[in-house]
Description:
Layout: H1 2-29, H2 34-43, H3 47-69, H4 75-99
Amino acid sequence: MTRLLRDIGYFVVLCLMIMGVGGVMYHAIGEDGWIERFFGDVLDQGVGTILAVLVGLVFAGWLIRRWLIASQRHALFNDFLMYGMVALGVLFVGRLLMNGSL
């Protein structure tokens, strides 16, 4: 019985994490999302700003990849990232239940 309850708890955490990731993606790439607003403002600034943003994104992607691959040394960071997504999942499920939308 305790195994069943533990497995149900793990499943709930997994579902909340998936809701957190899905909600972030919905708000990032959805209609009038964060990425659309950001790139709309950047495109108005000119070529130099676009190039600086691209270099920054490549560098940030390289750093994130390095941190996530070295999981043994950065296990605490990975745990914070996972539980942050679970907390966002709780937020998005609450908003979904109260408002009917994310």
